[in-house]
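Researcher: I've been going back and forth with a colleague about how Ring-cleaving dioxygenase might be arranged in three dimensions. Neither of us has a model we trust, so I'd like an independent prediction. The organism is Cytobacillus praedii, in case that matters for your notes. Sequence below.
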Amino acid sequence: MLNTAGIHHITAMVTDAQRNIDFYAGVLGLRLVKKTINFDRPEVYHLYFGNETGEPGTVITFFPWAKQLKGRIGTGQVGVTSYSIPKGSASFWEHRLKKFDVEYPTANRFGETYIKFNDPDGLHLELVEREEGPINTWSFGEVHNENAIKGFTGAVLYSAQPHKTADVLENVLGLECIGQEQEFLRFKSRAHIGNTIDIHLKPAVRGLMGAGTVHHIAWRAKDEAEHLRWRTLLLEKGYYPTEILDRNYFKALYFHEGGGILFEIATDPPGFTADEPVDQLGGKLMLPSWLEPKREELEEMLPDVKARVLEEGDK
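Model: Here is an independent structure prediction for Ring-cleaving dioxygenase. You can compare it with whatever you and your colleague have in mind.
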């Protein structure tokens, strides 16, 4: 049976590109590993944030588009994106969030304490200390290796049909169900990051796509050969995956699972160094070859944005 190593990336919708960069790079200390465009709407940026090299399991991506309507987090979506931080770093992160006026209640789930907060567009995020997973070698501003976010712990799924979502996690993607606590059902994959998926069994409202919501969650395929096997398996299981699409940094296919959440399966290679070296990641606008002739036009259209170190009081 095929089984995914865990989360490849998570993609969300936001409104303002510079504000998005300021929060995820400036406040959270993630690296802006790729500044490109939405291949389907090239007038909109596609921004990628992760660890130093943008390894699978660390990357959150955004479509910042000022004209989109505000969304509503609810069923049929990823409700919460969970990040792993090193053991002993919780107090650093509480202090840092307070410094930038970010409210952070805490909650306990499966014996772990989660620091919960929202980004400027309202996306639900949380941090939890974990031993597993390599240290993030990227430092930015005041966020150094010993406290830096390692990557995803996982995610909380808000399913319209929790039993159907549980079935696809366990019997298609190959995750292991490891227990239930109150209204959460937990699954785990074999990776060291991006490996813990909780299904919220009683989400309150139906989700509406828009700014401040997750568009899709992507799962890992180790290479293109395995990617083809995943597509065959999905067809055999009665799902309707898209054709395989070239996203420059990975190959992708998409399908809706039975609880209404858009799932993607993405290949680990070629990765974000396919078109620029590690030391230059995220520094300039990268375009697919078929859009290079429009570079000047696109650069004039898109706002000038960059990762910058923030000081207390910066917004």
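Researcher: What would you highlight for our discussion?
Model: I'd start with this: The CA atoms of residues 2 and 229 lie 8 Å apart. After that, consider the following. Residues 7-301 form a domain with the 2,3-Dihydroxybiphenyl 1,2-Dioxygenase; domain 1 fold (CATH 3.10.180.10).
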